[in-house]
Design brief:
The protein has helices at residues 8-59, 113-116, 119-128, 130-146, 157-162, 215-267, 282-331, 338-362, 374-382, 401-418, 474-484, and strands at 77-81, 86-89, 93-97, 170-171, 176-184, 187-199, 205-213, 370-373, 388-392, 396-399, 423-430, 433-440, 488-493, 499-506. With 508 residues, it is α+β, with helices and mostly antiparallel strands. The protein has three domains: 12-111 and 144-221, 2-Layer Sandwich (Beta-Lactamase); 270-365, Helix Hairpins (Orthogonal Bundle); 366-506, Histidine kinase-like ATPase, C-terminal domain (Heat Shock Protein 90), CATH 3.30.565. Strands 1, 2, 3, 4, 5, 6 and 7 form a seven-stranded antiparallel beta sheet that branches. Strands 9-11-12-14-13 form a five-stranded mixed beta sheet. A two-stranded antiparallel ribbon has the order 8-10. Helix 9 (374-382) packs across helix 10.
Length: 508
């Protein structure tokens, strides 16, 4: 399991599939909600039309038994008076819920005061009962507040603002919607109900509730849900398969790079290179960078091999010479060349010091961050050397005083070996750089060799021989130190015809 999901291909496929699955789930839920809302609203509109049609007939004084909306083919319809009594209902209505009342059997409503008696008939009754009504008036008001259930059609103060009192024969503008169920002719179904108020001329305020079936909404939602349950997994599987294939093709060059790198590691053959795809994507850039790294590593290893070989060769000569002298001295003490032995020992010591410094530079040793005045350093190094002149202005740089002194000393030693008479040292400022120049009046360096002389263990001619004390490391060390200090060291031609070496370092 860890190996399966440890690959980029598997993780990319899983991630893409999860994203698509979540997107499909959210989209599907939104579509189902929108579909359900639209179909429910459509059913509510249908129910409202039926309720308003029945309300119009009631406003036109149509008797209950002649209302067209109460037929068996219509949906469930209820007519409720302001006292909450069911006064008319659809035929074959057996059970209902979600409306003003769950009654299905109509009850005759008590006639309204205006319809049950004329003013002449009601007057005697009012005269006979006038005293009794006056005595119980306060108690009736309190009983109405505490014990009488407020009919649904009564309006609160907020409703009175939005729904003013209706005139006789007028239908209310507001419609109340609700959801419920009804059983008609032994068939139970869900309905969307709409309730509308109507003020009649002879039957007071009535509320008409009519329902429209939600079967279409349920059917459409079930169909959409079935399609989603079948289609969405197939779509997610298709996305997973396409992602797996596309990712595999995209990562195929990576497998080739990995295999080639494993072969290079096993064979230790740094001349080999990884395949570079013909595309211009990140993998192609990775392959090119890998090959550049291999090339740099090959150069470094080859340089190290040459360095070890050259160092071994250079160390062999003074060691062999010193051993010979010691063996001769052991057999014939009178033949001991003490000066030669000391010279070979000093030369061996200098060579070891140079090799150690180069090793530290190759290891990335950072120079000490200190301020060094090149003019003062030039005067110190020139002191005690014959034929060396100094013309320097103060220029401070940041770096290691010891390493910079080593650079200047190597340049002066090189100049003295090849100069005819004099070596000149100058220090000046050029912009944000300090320039230290060492020139001699010797034969100079050919233009073709001005870069080769900075390679390690390189000696251009017989004049640069071991007898002259040079091992071919001085200029290489000088350039490495200059680079470590953020500067450059170049060779050119001096005005006097000899060699000119210029060290350029950033000013502190």
């Amino acid at each position: 399991m860890n190996r399966l999901f440890g690959s980029v291909r598997s993780r990319a496929t899983l991630g893409a599939t999860l994203v698509v699955a979540v997107a499909l789930f959210v989209t599907g839920a939104a579509v189902l909600q929108a579909l359900r809302s639209n179909l429910t609203a459509e059913a509510g509109t249908q129910a409202e039309g039926t309720a308003r049609a029945v309300a119009s007939e009631l406003a036109a004084r149509t008797p209950y038994d002649q209302l067209s909306g109460l037929g068996s083919k219509s949906g469930p319809v209820q007519v409720v008076d302001e006292d909450g009594n069911l006064v008319a209902a659809s035929e074959d209505l057996q059970r209902i819920s979600g409306t003003v009342t769950d009654r299905v059997e109509p009850r005759p409503s008590s006639p309204s005061p205006s319809a049950s008696a004329s003013p002449s008939q009601s007057a005697p009754a009012r005269e006979d009962d006038e005293d009794e009504d006056d005595e119980d008036e306060d108690e009736d008001d309190e009983d109405d507040d505490e014990d009488t259930e407020t009919p649904r059609s009564q309006s609160t103060p907020e409703d009175e603002e939005s729904e003013p009192s209706l005139a006789p024969g007028e239908t209310g503008r507001q419609t109340t919607f609700s959801s419920g169920a009804a059983t008609m002719d032994d068939d139970t179904a869900d309905y969307r109900f709409a309730a509308v108020d109507v003020q009649t001329h002879d039957r007071g305020l009535l509320t008409v509730s009519a329902g429209a079936p939600l079967a279409a909404e349920h059917s459409a939602v079930r169909t959409a849900l079935t399609v989603m349950l079948i289609g969405f997994p197939l779509l997610a599987a298709l996305v997973a398969g396409m992602t797996w294939v596309v990712t595999g093709r995209a990562l195929r060059p990576v497998a080739g790079i990995r295999e080639e790198m494993a072969a290079i590691t096993a064979s230790e053959d740094l001349k080999r290179r990884v395949p570079e795809p013909g595309t211009h994507d990140e993998i192609a850039r990775l392959a090119r960078t890998t090959n550049e790294t291999l090339a740099a590593l090959e150069t470094s290893v080859e340089r190290q091999r040459r360095f070890v070989a050259d160092a071994s060769h250079e160390l062999r000569s003074p060691i062999a010479s010193l051993r010979t002298q010691l063996e001769v001295a052991a057999a014939h003490p009178e033949l001991l060349d003490l000066d030669g032995a000391v010279e070979d020992t000093v030369r061996l010591q200098h060579l070891a010091a140079d090799l150690l410094l180069l090793a530290r530079l190759d290891a990335g040793e950072r120079p000490v961050d200190a301020r060094v005045d090149l003019a003062a350093l030039a005067r110190e190094e020139a002191a005690g050397r014959t034929g060396v002149t100094v013309d320097a202005e103060s220029a401070e740089v940041a770096g290691s005083r010891g390493q910079l002194a080593r650079v200047l000393g190597n340049l002066l030693d090189n100049g003295r070996r090849h100069a005819r008479e004099t070596v000149s040292v100058s220090v000046r400022r050029e912009g944000d750089r300090a320039v230290l120049a060492v020139a001699d009046d010797g034969d100079g360096v050919a233009e073709a060799d001005r870069e080769r002389i900075f390679e390690r263990f390189v000696r251009l001619d017989a004049a640069r021989s071991r007898d002259d004390g040079g091992a071919g490391l001085g200029l290489a060390i000088a350039r490495d130190v200059a680079v470590r200090h953020g500067g450059t060291l170049t060779a050119g031609a001096a005005p006097s015809g000899g060699a000119l070496f210029e060290l350029r370092l950033p000013l502190a």
